[in-house]
Design brief:
The protein is mainly alpha-helical. It has one domain (4-158): Ferritin. It is 75% helix and 0% strand. The protein contains five helices and no strands. It has helices spanning 4-33, 37-63, 83-110, 114-144, 148-158. Helix 1 packs antiparallel against helix 3 and helix 2 (37-63) packs parallel to helix 5 (148-158). The radius of gyration is 17 Å and the shape is elongated. It binds hydroxy diiron-OXO moiety. Hydroxy diiron-OXO moiety (OFO) binds next to helix 1, helix 2, helix 3 and helix 4.
């Protein structure tokens, strides 16, 4: 049985993962309307993966005898100044999510809930990968600068990149 404190913290994380999915969906849609089809596909996949992260938490809470709360979401930003601005926003968001996961891990340790602590290790590993990928993308974009040919290749290549590379969701 989950302690109330753990259940509340997990439900907050459910909301964060769902919001991540909404944010990346809005980013994908923006990229699509800017003619950046590869980037849009990458972000649509990323949005789906965040939804799976949310789902995994919902099922975990319910399996442990708790009650998952399906949250309300606010509308995400729908416009970006540039691709660099979009991916900087994504990187900042992932850094925030990593901090939230770390806080959750700390709560589990304080509450001696080692089962949830173990469950959360998948998220800890996932955040390392997501942050690293976002930083690599930012490095590439800063190399490309205003070069249209570089941007064309970037958009073509990013479509084949997957965010989740380890284990199943
Ligand atoms: Fe759920 O991994 Fe990004 O936010």
């Amino acid at each position: 049985m989950l302690k109330d404190k753990i259940q509340t913290a997990l439900n907050e994380q459910i909301k964060i993962e769902g919001e991540s999915s909404q944010i990346y969906l809005a980013m994908a849609s923006w990229a699509e309307t800017e003619g950046l089809g590869g980037t849009a596909q990458f972000l649509y996949k990323h949005s789906d993966e965040e939804r799976m992260h949310m789902l995994k938490l919902v099922q975990y809470v319910n399996e442990r005898g708790g009650k998952a709360i399906v949250p309300e979401f606010s509308q995400p930003d729908v416009g970006y100044k540039s691709l660099t601005n979009l991916f900087q926003t994504l990187l900042n968001h992932e850094i925030m999510v990593s901090e939230e996961i770390n806080n959750l891990v700390e709560i589990c340790l304080n509450e001696k809930d080692y089962t949830t602590h173990n469950f959360l290790q998948w998220y800890v590993a996932e955040q390392i990968e997501e942050e690293a990928l976002a930083r690599t993308i930012m490095d590439k974009l800063s190399m490309i600068g205003e070069d249209k040919g570089g941007l064309y290749l970037f958009d073509r290549d990013i479509e084949s990149i997957s965010v989740t590379t380890n284990s199943e969701v």
